[in-house]
Amino acid sequence: MDAPAALPSANKGRLLVVDDQRNMRATTALLLRAEGFVVDEAGGGEEALALLSSRTYDLLLTDLKMEPMDGLALLKRALDAVSGLQVIVMTAYGSIETAVEAIRSGAYDYITKPFKDGEIVYRVQKALERARLISTVETFAGEFKERHGLTALVGKSAAMRELTTRISRVAGSDATVLIEGESGTGKELVARAIHALSARSKAPFVPVNCAAITETLLESELFGHARGAFTGAVKARRGLFEEATGGTLFIDEVTETSGAFQSKLLRALQEHEIRRVGENASINVDVRVVAASNRDIELDVAEKRFRQDLFYRLAVVTLKVPPLRERLEEVPLLAAHFLERANARSRRPHRLTQAALDHLGGYAFPGNVRELENLVEQAAALAEGEELLPEDFPLKRPRTDPSPVPFSPAGVVTLADAVTEAERKAIQVALERLPDLGRVAEVLGVSTTTLWRKMKRLGLKTSQELPPEAPRSNLNDGSTS
């Protein structure tokens, strides 16, 4: 084994270069050391594994054709041994098949020898950037999950994985973000996640809910006011834009504002300056704005209730938070998290039974994650025993209950229940009139997979033949899982 290189003054990362051809290994290591990297060398797979077990490396750069252990075997064993290790595979035997196999096995990148000096340096730098991003996200996931309840945001569903991926991507920029989602889905958690992952994380995160402030006070709240600007303004006051300087201003329910206020908000976003109520001088502000709405903002634009130019200014990046009914597989995870928090505040800990989880899994949650949290806290507060049973969770209406939509004492149905019942009736009518599920999906304007999922969620059964791409289990068994 070659002796490890001395640590340079500007350490860019520690690399391990593995190649059974000494000249190629030494040349690659020399090139990377000249770029400021700390480089160790190994002449084979076993030697490399021994180094990986004794030192911490940011990147493994390994040849593919080696004896007795080839590069793919080393790749798999290295990734099993070192979590988060980045690997680049080098080979003179370039082909699509070997490249795909290396990437599928967990390699970050693939490079064919002979390679240019600039090419290998560039690929190493990109791999190390990815390693740093993963480290940052993992740190954030632990700290932020504890501080802000990010368990309500992170989930196993495809929609939530896509959301968290987009959060990681947009957080590093200063782009304005618009978060869309129903009430109770966790839009503020998304905004906090963006802030915590950004370069502004050490500066303030300042939230404001436009629906909770009267129109006359909203301008003063965000932009501030001068002394004597209006009755009761006994002294000058900084607004939330100034309070959030250097950080993030989260404007929730932005659609609950007037056209006059929207024009002033648009100017603040365009010019990066605000004017306090009652003052003529402008004040420069350095603030990233994240806005949110539980309404269809594009419909509001079309119906002239929201300024189109402000919409485009806010929606540089749009994130959609899925309702809980579309990710019911996460109910056990979320319920366990909320119960853990409730237990921490209680002298008598409780635990969830499978029957209770099955009971919760059959509910549409019109109030989304917030409703689930409320149900768990209520059950923990009122339950007689340590085990939480189905009867400890009084639900408004089971998701699969075919009975008519219940109305409140005031005679008003919730929008979520109205939508569910409309979907049920539309699918039932189509099933009665059309010969197969493929035709039903076509007429309803959805994919066959979406149709199958909706039928399963609504508890609808059919004897018709399933479309080819739909799953062929659990449709006629009444399952609600």
Give a verbal description of the structure:
Helix 6 (158-171) crosses helix 7 (187-197), helix 13 (331-344) crosses helix 15 and helix 16 (415-433) crosses helix 17. Mean pLDDT is 81; it is low at 1-10, 148-152, 398-411 and 467-481. It contains 18 helices and 16 strands. By secondary structure, the chain is of the alpha/beta class. The chain has a five-stranded parallel sheet, with helices on both faces. The radius of gyration is 29 Å and the shape is globular. Helix 4 links the parallel strand 4 (86-91) and strand 5. The chain has four domains: 14-133, Response regulator (Rossmann fold, 3-Layer(aba) Sandwich); 150-320, P-loop containing nucleotide triphosphate hydrolases (Rossmann fold); 341-392, Helicase, Ruva Protein, domain 3; 398-481, no CATH class.
Q: What is the structure about, briefly put?
A:
It contains 18 helices and 16 strands.
Name of the CATH architecture of the largest domain: 3-Layer(aba) Sandwich
From the spread of the alpha carbons, the general shape counts as globular
Number of helices: 18
Q: Tell me, what is the CATH class of the largest domain?
A: Alpha Beta
Radius of gyration: 29 Å
Poorly predicted spans? 1-10, 148-152, 398-411, 467-481
The CATH topology of the largest domain is given as Rossmann fold
Q: Strand tally, please?
A: 16
Instruction: Determine the fraction of residues in helical runs and give it as a percent range.
Output: 40-55%
How is the main sheet built? 5 strands, parallel
Number of domains: 4
Mean pLDDT: 81
Structural class: alpha/beta
Specify the CATH homologous superfamily of the largest domain: P-loop containing nucleotide triphosphate hydrolases
The quaternary structure here is single chain
Strand order of the largest sheet: 2-1-3-4-5
